[in-house]
Amino acid sequence: MVRRFQSVIFFDLDGTIMVNPFESAVWPVVLSELSIRSGQSVDHLYRLIAEENRHRQNDAHCPAIKAMDWDDIVQSVAARLGTVIHASCESIVREQAATHSSILDQGDQVLKKLSQEHRALVVATKGLRRYQQPVLDALGLTPYFRAILTPDTHNVLKKDPAFFGEWPKKSQLTIMVGDSYEDDVRTPVNEGFKVVWKHTPIGLHHTLAHADPFTRARHFPYAPDQTARPDAIIASLQELPSIVQRWETAWMGYGN
């Protein structure tokens, strides 16, 4: 049973808190072997893998775990090309997590600052645990989190409210922090979460780069289909603690 907390803060991982080994270590090995075996270009193969992943995520009949199983995706693409591949994404992640992963925005210090008894920090990642846990461990981030939610947890993707389990019901203030609009903004907003959207400085409209996170969220040039709006937009995780403190003070009277 999930204990009740005053605040639960869900954190996306890739692009929000950390950089995983896929771009620098996994794909170079996997795509190189697949290219040699199939005779196809690396760029073409990468597109095929990405397309297969998107197709699975959008297929209501595809189990969430299978949708994000990169090893199965790669083998499926290889099979369509009449070959097999021996490189394992999971094995490479485990072998290279310590040397090909990094923490963004001094995220470990931000998590340390946010770690208080009345809060639960919870990982909410679309990546399977077998790919994410080795990276969290290698970067020393695992101890900061009270739970790690992945598609393995409830066999749903993050766009499904069931992904978050009982956690939202066990807190007065529920916050989602992430960099993907589809995964970290749309569903959490519709579920009544407070949402912090992480946008890189380059991605922010130049007139908003120096604005406060709440002003950015109000005036951001959203796409027509981006009807669910975040409460705050940050360029760095360093901006997060003051946002959390502000909400807690307003909602529950937690002050410094």
Account of the 3D structure:
- This protein folds into 2 domains: 5-20 and 101-252, HAD superfamily/HAD-like (Rossmann fold, 3-Layer(aba) Sandwich), CATH 3.40.50; 22-96.
- The chain is of the alpha/beta class.
- Helix 1 (22-38) packs antiparallel against helix 5 and helix 5 runs parallel beside helix 7 (129-138).
- The mean pLDDT is 93.
- The radius of gyration is 19 Å and the shape is globular.
- It starts with a strand and ends with a helix.
- It is built from 11 helices and 8 strands.
- It is 43% helix and 14% strand.
- Helix 7 (129-138) links the parallel strand 4 and strand 5 (147-149).
- A 6-stranded parallel sheet has the order 5-4-1-6-7-8, sandwiched between helices.
Question: How do the strands and helices of this protein lay out in sequence?
Answer:
Layout (H helix, E strand, L loop, with lengths): L4 E7 L6 E2 L2 H17 L3 H17 L5 H4 L2 H11 L8 H8 L5 E2 L3 H8 L4 E6 L4 H10 L8 E3 L1 H4 L16 E8 L2 H10 L3 E5 L14 H7 L12 E3 L5 H13 L4
Parallel strand pairs: 1-4, 1-6, 4-5, 6-7, 7-8
Antiparallel strand pairs: 2-3
Helix pairs in contact: 1-5, 2-4, 5-7
